[in-house]
Amino acid sequence: MSVSKISESFLVTEEDFINMQLARRCYYVSPKRKIILRIMGMIAVFSGAAATIFVKVGVWQMFCWILLILTGFYMLSYYDVIDPLMIKNASSRFYQFNKNAINSRTIEFAEDKFSVISEDYKLELPEKYIYCIAESPSTIFIFTDKSEFVFIPRRVLSDEKIRFIRSFTSAEKYKTIQIPKEA
Protein backbone atom coordinates (compact mmCIF):
# COMPACT_ATOMS: atom_id res chain seq x y z
CA MET A 1 0.00 0.00 0.00
CA SER A 2 1.47 3.35 -1.06
CA VAL A 3 0.85 6.46 1.02
CA SER A 4 0.16 9.77 -0.76
CA LYS A 5 -0.82 11.77 2.32
CA ILE A 6 -0.08 11.34 6.00
CA SER A 7 -1.50 13.03 9.04
CA GLU A 8 -0.49 12.40 12.63
CA SER A 9 -1.49 14.06 15.91
CA PHE A 10 0.68 13.91 19.00
CA LEU A 11 1.59 15.57 22.28
CA VAL A 12 5.28 16.09 22.99
CA THR A 13 6.38 14.18 26.09
CA GLU A 14 9.34 15.03 28.32
CA GLU A 15 11.34 12.17 26.79
CA ASP A 16 10.53 13.44 23.27
CA PHE A 17 11.72 16.92 24.25
CA ILE A 18 14.98 15.63 25.75
CA ASN A 19 15.65 13.40 22.72
CA MET A 20 14.98 16.33 20.40
CA GLN A 21 17.45 18.53 22.28
CA LEU A 22 20.14 15.82 22.17
CA ALA A 23 19.60 15.26 18.44
CA ARG A 24 19.61 19.01 17.79
CA ARG A 25 22.96 19.31 19.55
CA CYS A 26 24.39 16.49 17.43
CA TYR A 27 23.07 18.17 14.27
CA TYR A 28 24.70 21.53 15.03
CA VAL A 29 28.04 20.37 16.52
CA SER A 30 30.49 19.57 13.75
CA PRO A 31 32.69 16.48 13.95
CA LYS A 32 35.73 18.76 13.49
CA ARG A 33 34.86 20.60 16.69
CA LYS A 34 34.66 17.33 18.61
CA ILE A 35 37.99 16.11 17.21
CA ILE A 36 39.76 19.39 17.99
CA LEU A 37 38.50 19.37 21.60
CA ARG A 38 39.56 15.74 22.04
CA ILE A 39 43.04 16.44 20.64
CA MET A 40 43.40 19.42 22.97
CA GLY A 41 42.29 17.21 25.86
CA MET A 42 44.87 14.54 25.01
CA ILE A 43 47.60 17.16 24.76
CA ALA A 44 46.60 18.57 28.16
CA VAL A 45 46.55 15.12 29.80
CA PHE A 46 49.91 14.04 28.33
CA SER A 47 51.56 17.41 29.01
CA GLY A 48 50.34 17.45 32.59
CA ALA A 49 51.38 13.82 33.16
CA ALA A 50 54.83 14.38 31.64
CA ALA A 51 55.37 17.55 33.66
CA THR A 52 54.23 15.81 36.86
CA ILE A 53 56.67 12.93 36.29
CA PHE A 54 59.70 14.73 34.86
CA VAL A 55 59.59 18.24 36.35
CA LYS A 56 60.41 18.12 40.02
CA VAL A 57 59.14 21.32 41.59
CA GLY A 58 57.08 22.47 44.53
CA VAL A 59 53.55 21.70 45.64
CA TRP A 60 52.06 24.69 43.81
CA GLN A 61 53.49 23.61 40.44
CA MET A 62 52.36 20.01 41.08
CA PHE A 63 48.84 21.34 41.75
CA CYS A 64 48.93 23.20 38.41
CA TRP A 65 50.02 20.06 36.50
CA ILE A 66 47.27 18.01 38.13
CA LEU A 67 44.76 20.73 37.27
CA LEU A 68 45.98 20.56 33.64
CA ILE A 69 45.40 16.79 33.64
CA LEU A 70 41.88 17.20 35.04
CA THR A 71 41.12 19.88 32.45
CA GLY A 72 42.29 17.47 29.77
CA PHE A 73 39.96 14.74 31.04
CA TYR A 74 37.12 17.28 31.07
CA MET A 75 37.83 18.15 27.42
CA LEU A 76 38.05 14.47 26.45
CA SER A 77 34.70 13.62 28.02
CA TYR A 78 32.79 16.82 27.23
CA TYR A 79 30.82 15.80 24.10
CA ASP A 80 30.27 12.19 25.16
CA VAL A 81 29.38 12.53 28.85
CA ILE A 82 29.20 16.05 30.26
CA ASP A 83 27.28 17.86 27.50
CA PRO A 84 24.53 15.18 27.17
CA LEU A 85 24.03 15.18 30.96
CA MET A 86 23.73 18.98 31.01
CA ILE A 87 21.30 18.92 28.07
CA LYS A 88 19.15 16.23 29.70
CA ASN A 89 19.05 18.12 33.00
CA ALA A 90 18.28 21.52 31.44
CA SER A 91 15.71 20.06 29.01
CA SER A 92 13.92 18.20 31.78
CA ARG A 93 13.72 21.34 33.94
CA PHE A 94 12.54 23.43 30.97
CA TYR A 95 9.86 20.87 30.08
CA GLN A 96 8.63 20.62 33.68
CA PHE A 97 8.44 24.40 33.98
CA ASN A 98 6.59 24.82 30.63
CA LYS A 99 4.55 21.61 30.36
CA ASN A 100 1.24 23.44 30.81
CA ALA A 101 1.98 25.53 27.71
CA ILE A 102 2.72 22.54 25.46
CA ASN A 103 -0.18 21.76 23.15
CA SER A 104 -0.87 18.79 20.96
CA ARG A 105 -0.08 19.27 17.31
CA THR A 106 -1.00 17.66 14.04
CA ILE A 107 1.46 17.26 11.21
CA GLU A 108 0.40 16.64 7.64
CA PHE A 109 2.35 15.76 4.53
CA ALA A 110 0.31 15.94 1.36
CA GLU A 111 1.56 15.87 -2.23
CA ASP A 112 3.77 18.97 -2.29
CA LYS A 113 3.08 20.68 1.05
CA PHE A 114 3.84 20.23 4.73
CA SER A 115 1.55 21.49 7.51
CA VAL A 116 1.72 21.80 11.28
CA ILE A 117 -1.48 22.65 13.13
CA SER A 118 -1.63 23.48 16.82
CA GLU A 119 -3.91 25.47 19.11
CA ASP A 120 -1.46 28.37 18.87
CA TYR A 121 -0.49 28.37 15.21
CA LYS A 122 -0.79 26.88 11.77
CA LEU A 123 2.16 26.48 9.43
CA GLU A 124 1.66 25.49 5.82
CA LEU A 125 4.75 25.20 3.70
CA PRO A 126 5.27 24.05 0.10
CA GLU A 127 7.88 21.32 -0.30
CA LYS A 128 10.25 23.61 -2.20
CA TYR A 129 10.64 25.81 0.92
CA ILE A 130 11.79 22.96 3.15
CA TYR A 131 15.50 23.48 3.80
CA CYS A 132 16.15 19.86 4.77
CA ILE A 133 14.78 16.86 6.61
CA ALA A 134 17.06 15.33 9.23
CA GLU A 135 16.47 12.10 11.07
CA SER A 136 17.88 10.73 14.32
CA PRO A 137 16.97 7.44 16.01
CA SER A 138 14.27 9.21 18.06
CA THR A 139 13.32 12.38 16.15
CA ILE A 140 12.60 13.67 12.65
CA PHE A 141 13.37 17.34 12.00
CA ILE A 142 11.77 19.40 9.25
CA PHE A 143 14.03 22.45 8.79
CA THR A 144 12.58 25.58 7.21
CA ASP A 145 16.05 27.22 7.24
CA LYS A 146 19.39 26.54 8.94
CA SER A 147 18.08 27.18 12.45
CA GLU A 148 14.27 26.92 12.38
CA PHE A 149 12.66 23.51 12.54
CA VAL A 150 9.63 21.46 13.48
CA PHE A 151 10.29 18.11 15.11
CA ILE A 152 8.29 14.91 15.07
CA PRO A 153 8.93 12.12 17.56
CA ARG A 154 9.53 8.87 15.65
CA ARG A 155 7.38 6.98 18.17
CA VAL A 156 4.21 8.45 16.58
CA LEU A 157 5.06 7.35 13.03
CA SER A 158 4.79 3.93 11.43
CA ASP A 159 7.60 2.66 9.18
CA GLU A 160 5.49 3.37 6.10
CA LYS A 161 4.95 7.00 7.17
CA ILE A 162 8.67 7.41 7.87
CA ARG A 163 9.45 6.13 4.35
CA PHE A 164 6.96 8.66 2.95
CA ILE A 165 8.63 11.52 4.85
CA ARG A 166 12.06 10.38 3.60
CA SER A 167 10.78 10.48 0.03
CA PHE A 168 8.93 13.79 0.50
CA THR A 169 11.93 15.90 -0.51
CA SER A 170 14.82 15.35 -2.85
CA ALA A 171 17.72 13.18 -1.67
CA GLU A 172 20.00 16.26 -1.37
CA LYS A 173 17.72 17.67 1.32
CA TYR A 174 17.71 14.51 3.43
CA LYS A 175 20.26 14.00 6.25
CA THR A 176 20.86 11.45 8.98
CA ILE A 177 21.96 12.63 12.43
CA GLN A 178 24.34 10.28 14.22
CA ILE A 179 23.63 10.17 17.94
CA PRO A 180 26.35 8.67 20.18
CA LYS A 181 25.10 5.61 22.07
CA GLU A 182 26.18 7.16 25.39
CA ALA A 183 23.77 10.08 24.87
Describe this structure in words.
The structure is a single chain. This protein has four helices and eight strands, in the order βαααββββββαβ. It is of the alpha+beta class and 183 residues long. The chain folds into two domains: 5-13 and 102-176, PH-domain like (Roll); 19-100, no CATH class. The strands form two sheets. It has a four-stranded antiparallel sheet, covered by helices on one side. A hairpin with a 3-residue loop joins β5 (132-135) and β6 (139-143).
Brief account:
With 183 residues, this protein is α+β, with helices and mostly antiparallel strands.
N- to C-terminal separation? 36 Å
pLDDT averaged over residues: 86
Q: What fraction of residues sit in β-strands?
A: 15-25%
Q: Which class of the largest domain in CATH terms?
A: Mainly Beta
Structural class: alpha+beta
Main pleated sheet: 4 strands, antiparallel
CATH architecture of the largest domain: Roll
Q: Tally the helices: what do you get? A: 4
Radius of gyration over alpha carbons? 22 Å
**Order of strands side by side in the largest beta sheet?**
1-2-3-4
CATH superfamily of the largest domain: Pleckstrin-homology domain (PH domain)/Phosphotyrosine-binding domain (PTB)
What's the domain count?
Answer: 2
CATH topology of the largest domain: PH-domain like
The run of helices and strands is EHHHEEEEEEHE
